[in-house]
């Protein structure tokens, strides 16, 4: 299993290209199931989760050509409507095939998902919504079995769906299913995340009728069929935020390219509160961190546009080295503080009570052997390693490879010292 060796203490200088967003690319690739025409997607990041998605789509019968961030997909010969456990266990987002398979083919047999071990993460909202649209759904042997064969023309029926809790993939699954349903679907208390909007814009480019993207009520009027399209995936705002956090703890000056700062205001605001200078343009962000101490920042995660849970661990690494105490409250997922123990092994001072971490702030931390436990927890260990004295070895970095494209190459180009050990 690969490990990362990080030698801390080098300031970061230069430019870094931010990749396409994992969380937008996954549903966008999966949306190709909805049409029998060719869909060409560009700016697709090179990541383990993307490979898993492509393998899953190929298993279903989608013909796929991919090279260098461009993926062409044709779903004109779907041979299976099943997503087996072996393919989906490593990636929770594979639940996203449920809506498209059901709405285009009238059947779906999808394994309950795995993914990051950050709490229970049920899929009840996805299932309830599809049932409300008329599907028959049962769960047995770890599989969701869904059918619309009893409905007229096997079509889901548009209806009003109120989401009890804001769910990103839940909103995406229902939105995709609704594009081919009979009549209008209203998703109330819908997720407003930019990645949901990106998927919605792809669907519109395929001929879907969708209104209200980026608001908490999305209206979808079903159409008979969707056509092919060409579409570019948006930038990864979590990858961008992670490099900003790395610049805060390492010092230096880093320019992020291919980003739209308007889609990450809550993170930029908190980065500024740490004492770093942030200069925003329409296509980039420059972050400058001088030698003054890092100011601690209190964080409370929330649904977009509030502070993203996927940036919480990275800000913990910042606060660990800040000049004073801070509190980090996680409101989206239970059990998302697994990085705390590892940071403490490096010399951090953190107490966890319920869903809040109390961080004291220390002058320095030491390199250590640490274990990556989930995707964003791994990123916090990388950030801590960049600032630590001496060497940090991070084990189980397959978590990191699920979500960060060429991370050691990008960091080394900025002047860090990061080595992948096989
Ligand atoms: C997505 C992101 C993930 C991010 C998360 C929150 C993708 C591929 N993943 O995950 O990176 O951390 O949004 O921004 O886009 N819930 C239920 N029942 C459901 C669905 C969700 O109770 O049926 C709960 C979850 O347990 C969680 C909350 O709702 O407490 C939000 O989860 P959700 O937005 O669905 O997260 P994901 O879409 O899985």
User: Span between N and C termini?
Assistant: 6 Å
Question: Per DSSP, what share of the residues sits in E-state strands of 2 or more residues?
Answer: 25-35%
Structural class, by secondary structure, is: alpha/beta
Bound molecules: uridine-diphosphate-N-acetylglucosamine
Please outline the major beta sheet.
4 strands, mixed
Helix content: 25-40%
| Strand arrangement across the biggest beta sheet | 22-23-1-24
Quick one: CATH class of the largest domain? Alpha Beta
Q: Number of helical segments?
A: 14
Question: Which features would summarize this protein structure in a list?
Answer:
422 residues; alpha/beta; UDP-n-acetylglucosamine1-carboxyvinyl-transferase, Chain; four-stranded mixed β-sheet; 24 strands; 31% helix; elongated; binds uridine-diphosphate-N-acetylglucosamine
Reconstruct the topology from this structure:
Blueprint: E1 3-7, E2 12-17, H1 22-30, E3 38-42, H2 48-60, E4 63-67, E5 70-74, E6 82-83, H3 85-88, H4 98-105, E7 107-111, H5 124-132, E8 136-140, E9 143-147, E10 160-162, H6 168-178, E11 184-188, H7 194-205, E12 209-211, E13 217-221, E14 229-232, H8 237-250, E15 252-257, H9 265-273, E16 277-280, E17 284-289, E18 299-300, H10 312-320, E19 326-329, H11 338-345, E20 350-353, E21 356-359, E22 369-371, H12 375-387, E23 391-395, H13 398-401, H14 407-413, E24 417-421
Parallel strand pairs: 2-15, 3-14, 6-7, 10-11, 18-19, 22-23
Antiparallel strand pairs: 1-23, 1-24, 3-5, 4-5, 7-9, 8-9, 11-13, 12-13, 15-17, 16-17, 19-21, 20-21
The structure holds uridine-diphosphate-N-acetylglucosamine (UD1).
Subcellular location: Cytoplasm
Catalytic activity: phosphoenolpyruvate + UDP-N-acetyl-alpha-D-glucosamine = UDP-N-acetyl-3-O-(1-carboxyvinyl)-alpha-D-glucosamine + phosphate
Protein name: UDP-N-acetylglucosamine 1-carboxyvinyltransferase
């Amino acid at each position: 299993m690969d490990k990362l060796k990080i030698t801390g203490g080098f300031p970061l200088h230069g430019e870094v290209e931010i990749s396409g967003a994992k969380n937008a690319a996954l549903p966008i690739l999966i949306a190709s199931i909805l049409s029998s025409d060719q869909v060409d997607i560009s700016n697709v990041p090179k990541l383990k989760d993307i490979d898993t998605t492509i393998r899953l789509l190929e298993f279903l019968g989608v013909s796929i050509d991919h090279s260098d961030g461009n993926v062409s997909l044709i779903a004109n010969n779907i041979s299976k409507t099943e997503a087996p456990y072996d393919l989906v266990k490593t990636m929770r987002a594979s639940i996203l095939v449920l809506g498209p398979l059901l709405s285009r083919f009238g059947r779906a047999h999808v394994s309950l998902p795995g993914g990051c071990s950050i709490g229970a993460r049920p899929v009840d909202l996805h299932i309830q919504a599809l049932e409300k649209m008329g599907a028959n759904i049962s769960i047995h042997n770890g599989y969701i079995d869904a059918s619309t064969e009893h409905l007229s023309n096997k079509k889901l029926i548009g209806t009003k769906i109120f989401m009890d809790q804001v769910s990103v993939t839940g909103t995406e699954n229902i939105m995709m299913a609704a594009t081919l349903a009979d009549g209008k679907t209203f998703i109330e208390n819908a997720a407003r995340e930019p990645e949901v909007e990106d998927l919605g814009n792809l669907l519109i480019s395929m001929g879907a009728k969708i209104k209200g993207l980026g608001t908490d009520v999305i209206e979808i009027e079903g159409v008979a069929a969707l056509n092919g399209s060409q579409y570019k995936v948006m930038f990864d705002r979590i990858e961008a935020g992670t490099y900003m956090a790395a610049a805060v703890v390492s010092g230096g000056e880093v320019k992020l390219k291919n980003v739209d700062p308007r889609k990450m205001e809550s993170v930029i605001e908190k980065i500024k509160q740490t004492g770093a200078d942030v200069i925003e343009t329409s296509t980039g962000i420059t972050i400058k961190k001088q030698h003054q101490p890092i100011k601690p920042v209190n964080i409370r995660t929330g649904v977009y546009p509030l502070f993203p849970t996927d940036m919480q661990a990275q800000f913990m690494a910042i606060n660990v080295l800040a000049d004073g105490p801070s509190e980090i409250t996680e409101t989206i997922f239970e059990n998302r503080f697994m990085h705390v123990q590892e940071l403490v092994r490096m010399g951090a001072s953190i107490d966890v009570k319920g869903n809040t971490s109390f961080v004291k702030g220390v002058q320095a931390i030491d390199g250590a052997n640490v274990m990556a436990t989930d995707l964003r927890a791994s990123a916090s260990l990388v950030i801590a390693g960049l600032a630590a004295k001496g060497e940090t070895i991070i084990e189980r970095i397959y978590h990191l490879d699920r979500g960060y494209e060429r991370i050691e190459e990008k960091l080394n180009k900025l002047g860090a010292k990061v080595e992948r050990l096989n």
